[in-house]
């Protein structure tokens, strides 16, 4: 891909995190890319492209003023109230300077619906605090001029040694049971695919709401059992968690804002990548 170093200045809030850091590594060679970290680690404290930032204590405006990003990627975790205020400030900055905001949202924006998978234009509705929080930020951002916003709704993200798989490995090592949700039907994705999708959205100046889940759906328990089949060398005890009696969907499928074929993914590809 063409090097485009001068075109954008990209600030990744949460650049030290699992997905944020994968995005930093994907975009770094092509754009002036900056990131934030909260937990001091040498990798970030010695990297001049990184700013220390604690959403509960620091004003994001100060980083925005120093960094002057043309694009902000929000890949943060942290206190929801503090994150809401930070996103208000980012929105005000974007109104003033025309900055684009790419927000990592979640399939949980639909967790109150259980009977069907969700598409981009469906009304969001959540019963969880996390889902509520994501919807609140989405709605705040979606009031900006449409070209300035990309809301990316992600399902569970996997990758080789991702935090979820590390947690499972830890449970196995400690002879603990692994939780599965047998009546949860979901879609999944791969970290590498998400970063390529974001790169494409930036290069092609795409905006709007994107559903970045695999094109097919999987049962949570079957998907986890597949993963266990290649990461566990011993018998693993499964703890079956039933939240409802009937099948429940937590899946974000694309219909209106589809990415090209090579940027779509199936659950089978996710599993194949995890086995590499
Ligand atoms: N992972 C998934 O499957 C998934 C699915 C759907 C949506 N998402 C969304 O994707 C985003 C990134 O998730 P992730 O899994 O990559 O999370 P993660 O690995 O936990 O990374 C979170 C990032 O936020 C930073 N952070 C945490 N608390 C903070 C605070 N108080 N102040 C400032 N920064 C703080 C962390 O900094 P330090 O590490 O330096 O402390 C890190 O850079 C989140 O918004 C999440 O809701 C993730």
Shape: globular
How many H/I helices? 9
| DSSP strand count | 14
Bound molecules: NADP nicotinamide-adenine-dinucleotide phosphate
Residue windows where pLDDT falls under 50 for at least 5 positions:
none
User: Structural class, please?
Assistant: alpha/beta
User: Percent helix among the residues?
Assistant: 25-40%
Q: Characterize the biggest β-sheet.
A: 7 strands, parallel
Q: What portion of the residues fall into strands of 2 or more residues?
A: 15-25%
- The ordered string of helix (H) and strand (E) elements is EHEHEHEHEHEEHEEEHEEHEEH
Explain what the structure shows.
The structure is a single chain. Helix 1 links the parallel strand 1 and strand 2 (32-37). By secondary structure, the chain is α/β, with parallel strands linked by helices. Helix 1 crosses helix 7 and helix 4 packs parallel to helix 5. The longest helix is centred in the N-terminal third of the chain and has 18 residues, at 80-97. The protein has helices spanning 18-27, 42-45, 60-67, 80-97, 129-141, 163-173, 191-203, 220-231, 267-274, and strands at 9-13, 32-37, 50-52, 71-74, 100-106, 149-154, 156-158, 178-180, 184-186, 188-190, 208-211, 218-219, 238-240, 248-250. NADP nicotinamide-adenine-dinucleotide phosphate binds at residues 14, 16-20, 37-39, 53-56, 75-78, 104, 106, 154, 156-157.
